[in-house]
Amino acid sequence: MTIFDEVESAVQSYARSFPCIFNRAKNEFLYDEAGNEYLDFLAGAGTLNYGHNNDLFKARLLEYVMADGITHGLDLHTKAKGEFLESFNERILKPRGLDFVMQFTGPTGTNAVEAALKLARNVTGRENVISFTNGFHGVSLGALATTGNSHHRGAAGVSLSGSSRMPYDGYLGDGVDTTAYLDKVLGDSSSGIDLPAAVIVETVQGEGGINAASTEWLQQLESVCRKYDVLLIVDDVQAGCGRTGTFFSFEESGIKPDIVTMSKSLGGYGLPFAMVLIKPELDQWKPGEHNGTFRGNNFAFITAKAAIDEYWADDRFAKDIKRKGEYIEQRLDEMAAAYGDGNFSTRGRGMFRGINCVDGELAAKITHKAFTNGLMIETSGADDQVVKILCPLIITDANLKKGLDILAAAIRDICAKEAEMPEETDYFDNVQHVEPELISLAS
């Protein structure tokens, strides 16, 4: 029996899927105590978009620590915070025409969601919040009320109220505009749906199965919110920080949310960090109404600023993400066509993609087989039926191909089909390549 079996709570989950002891990590690789190397297509569930121990971030962090920089400062003004605020405002918000104030909450995505919901209710004076089927917003009680997954909801121990569920884009099948249904129930005083304070939505539902909302659906959702004077909250905890190809996942749709929640890869280095972006006129908090001992991680301010300055000063990194995303899409489409008797399908956007294996047990066997061959990858969806791609955005072309080769072999072996994969083509030779030095880690 290991120390983990002896004293750690049974609530652990990822350790059950990847049963070894890890002791080192670099870029897109993890290593265990036995010296085995694993390509990481899990990346801290989307926390490590810039890879493990990014050299640039590490150098800045070590410099800050050695200079006795502020470690913990509650919400005091610190040099590290000021420099992050300036960089985020100048490099992220202003170029996108976004006007937000930034609130630092406790360092988890669910706490950012709690703050967003609380603020929306306080500003509007309404209680109800519209959330969506298959949505995931966290497991503390307020956020959990807006989360669809019955496994997580069932652990609450109390009834969960304050949220009405609506069908997400595609939930009722292609060709059904579910925002029209939302419009109908909000306009009908007898629908049983109270006029909400806010609508909270993920543009790509990560835990829900990599369901990607269309541009048209998001635009129509925003229109419905404006029609009824309802606040629009975009949960960008997992889909943000470049995962879909733009810094914010909602950029390509052109919508302008009232509130945005962020965490996971925001800190850059895997350090805990969460933030709520709020339109200035909605920033109606009284001092200390939403607080926490660890709001505003000064170490994360340092690495988050480094990430913004290095990767988001221009559009080269975004273009590289889109290029790699197109390759992932092509490879997953090939896998879906070759296996699963025509039942497999693909979904997602940018480098946030998955392959729907229909059966959760089958998907679990595929990810287990991939792990035995050196690839860490997880599942998502209501029945864990979707194999989810969450590799670091900085992954090299060669290692991206290697990881997808491992996944393809795992699907082939588990499905035990005789069908041949399509003839391999060197996709990267057929697209405009972004030279490595354009996104290098050199300072």
Descriptive notes:
The chain is an alpha/beta fold and 443 residues long. It has 2 domains: 58-311, Type I PLP-dependent aspartate aminotransferase-like (Major domain) (Aspartate Aminotransferase, domain 2, 3-Layer(aba) Sandwich); 315-439, Aspartate Aminotransferase, domain 1, CATH 3.90.1150. Helix content is 35%, strand content 15%. The protein is built from 14 helices and 17 strands. The protein has helices at residues 3-7, 14-17, 43-46, 55-66, 79-93, 109-124, 141-145, 150-153, 178-187, 215-227, 298-311, 316-338, 360-372, 397-415, and strands at residues 22-26, 29-32, 37-40, 101-104, 129-132, 163-166, 198-201, 204-205, 211-212, 231-235, 259-262, 275-278, 345-349, 352-356, 375-376, 378-380, 386-389. It has a 7-stranded mixed sheet, sandwiched between helices. A 4-stranded mixed sheet has the order 1-2-3-15. A 4-stranded antiparallel sheet has the order 13-14-17-16. Helix 4 runs antiparallel to helix 11, helix 5 (79-93) runs parallel beside helix 11 and helix 9 (178-187) packs parallel to helix 10 (215-227). The longest helix is centred in the C-terminal third of the chain and has 23 residues, at 316-338. It is globular and about 55 Å long. The N and C termini lie far apart (46 Å). 46% of the residues are buried. The model is unreliable at 430-443 (pLDDT under 50).
